[in-house]
Request: fold
Amino acid sequence: MLRSLDRIEQRLAESVHSADRIADVTARHLLDAGGKRVRPLLTLLAAEVAGEVTDEVIEAAAVVELTHLASLYHDDVMDSAPMRRGVQTAHTVWGNTVAILTGDMIFARASAMVSALGQEPLMIQATTFERLVIGQLQETTGPAPDEDPVAHYIKVLSGKTGSLIAASGQYGALLGGGPRSVVDLMVVYGEKVGLAFQLADDIIDLTGHPDVSGKIRGTDLREGVDTLPVLLLRRDAAGSDPAAAASARELLELVDGDLSDEAALARAVEAVSEHPAAAEAWQIANDWADEAIAALEPLDDSVAKAALIEFAHGVVHRRG
Reply:
């Protein structure tokens, strides 16, 4: 496994290299900063549970990480995020235009790589890319007037994160030589574990440690982005339990207030972290991880299956 991960890192470095000096520097910016490599790891595990890790699997693992990397350049511009992976975001260093164009270039590199893997992998990439974009659009436009905000939030995460993690499992099982039943199973697993991962990531924005996550704690609160804990607070504030509603409304006054001051942001972060809504959000993330594990039930017991189970547990039991 370690050797395969090393090969993926080599392919990633090769893939972002450019003869153009500026493009080479900007494309390596986030790659050199590191990352969890969740998607490539899942690609490898899916290949092992389905068959074997082939050269095509290594290439697909690099493709999913490049696709994710490219999306981060765009996301950071849209979110005005100051930090990513412990370093300044590309748009704060070179400006929005350079960051967006760098993301576009990396998307192009990923597309060129996947085109060599065959028609089905190319279609997976196209479908996944469409879901990524639609998820971002849905987040930008917000829920419809009659739509439950929590359900809308889950739908957004399914597009923005679940789709690419599902594709990671799909690529691994397909290119690892697995039967169609295993390929389909890994899509279900990947989608659910992707939701668990992103839910945990959003909660960690409130409860995590900057030295681990590489992000400034409370960034979503400051930017007015309602992640699951805040959505649950808003639900409680409109609920029928008078005590719970009063507690939630009091906290929302702090959350919806001016958080430009560091002390005010710290108070809001601590208050939300300690509210029952945060514990409920963690439980929902764990429930998605449990559903992902349940999807693996048809597989025969193996070291690879055990690793996939541990992978699902790991995405919701981390500090950053």
In short: The two ends are 23 Å apart (CA to CA). Strands lie at 83-84, 87-88.
